[in-house]
Amino acid sequence: MDWDEILIEAAKEGNMVAVKTALEKGANINVKDEKGWTHLMWAKKNGHKEIVEYLKEKGAEDIEIEDIEIEFELYPEKIGDKFGYTDIKGNIFIKPQFDDALYFSEGLAAVKIGNKWGFINKKGNIVIKPQFELALAFSEGLAPIKIDEKFGFINRKGNIVIKPQFDDTENFSEGLASVKIGNKWGYINKKGNIVIKLQFDEARIFSEGLAAVKIGNKWGFIDKKGEIVIKPQFDDASFFSNGLARIKIGEKEFYIDKTGKIISNL
Q1: Architecture (CATH level 2) of domain 69-138
Q2: Beta-sheet pairing, 100-101 with 92-98
Q3: CATH topology of domain 3-67
Q4: Residue 51: enclosing H or E segment and its boundaries?
Q5: How much is the CA Rg of the chain, to the nearest whole Å?
Q6: How many whole angstroms separate alpha carbon 116 and alpha carbon 134?
Q7: Vertex 175 angle, CA 174 and 180, to 5°
Q8: Other CB atoms closer than 10 Å to residue 232's CB: what's the count?
Q9: What are the phi and psi torsion angles at 24 (to 5°)?
Q10: Rounded Cα gap, residues 153 and 57, in angstroms
Q11: What is the pLDDT along the chain (266 residues), one digit of tens a residue?
Q12: Any residues with CB less than 8 A from the CB of 221 and at least 6 apart, and which?
């Protein structure tokens, strides 16, 4: 029987009897789990004050949770009628309290409280107060937000750095973000300047120097100068990864290279 593991789980769950038993059986007073968290840290995180005091009396190292960088992945999950966050094993890490929640990106996640969106860190602390009609994930240090039916961008401090003026947008990628005004899409830089004019019916993120765009009812690819490098001819198109992009012709899907040549079907 692994008494170290039992000690960790007991501290998480607030089971004082199991905590005492594990220590009596020789569990390591400063054992850490695969995430680098001790039983004392879990007891603090989950609000088990009696266990916290007991472990400290027994000589457990008192590490403040605020001093620990949370490097493992957390996943939004709806539990009852609220969203919280769990680890990969399904353990609740941030208690259900939000009306909606997105995945973490660059250490922050967009969450909805009432009818407003803000951002939390991986400790569950609100770092950008709920104030937006909508908020999307951070990418390259900026996140799209919506105010008065228009999209703009904020930085990690919550400051608006590109004023809300767009009807729709995608995240920044490779220094550019696709934006929509009226019924046309183009691209802006991080100063909010339009660098590829509004001319496409749809436009996706840049990856490996190219972006899929739709002209009429067909998709092709442009470079960062806005020049078409693979003519619109596909019924759908995704982004390039490792030199290949998935495209669709009719009901069939294929991979193409950066010349537009079909490499293989799916």
Answers
A1: Beta Barrel (2.40)
A2: unpaired
A3: 1.25.40
A4: helix 49-57
A5: 24
A6: 7
A7: 105
A8: 19
A9: -65, -30
A10: 49
A11: 688 888 888 887 888 888 888 888 788 878 777 767 787 777 777 778 888 888 888 787 776 655 556 667 899 999 999 999 998 778 888 999 999 999 999 999 999 999 999 999 998 999 999 999 999 999 999 999 999 999 999 999 999 999 999 999 999 999 999 999 999 999 999 999 999 999 999 999 999 999 999 999 999 999 999 999 999 999 999 999 999 999 999 999 999 999 999 987 76
A12: 210, 211, 212, 213, 228, 229, 230, 237, 240, 245, 260
Each domain of the chain, given as residue ranges in start order, spans 3-67, 69-138
- Phi-psi sector, 17: left (phi>0), alpha (psi -120 to 50), beta: alpha
Q: Which tokens sit at 119?
A: 């951002």
Q: Which residue has the tokens 């995240």?
A: 171
Place of tokens 């004050």: 49
Q: Which string of b and e fits 95-128 if b means at least 16 CB within 10 Å?
A: ebebbebbebeeebbbbbbeeebbbbebebeeeb
User: Which strands make up the sheet holding 108-113, listed edge to edge?
Assistant: 100-101, 108-113, 116-121, 126-132
Q: Which pair of tokens denotes residue 205?
A: 């993120």
Looking at residue 39, its pLDDT comes to 77
Sign of the CA dihedral running 137, 143, 145, 151:
negative
The strand ranges marked E within 7-133 are 75-79, 82-86, 92-98, 100-101, 108-113, 116-121, 126-132
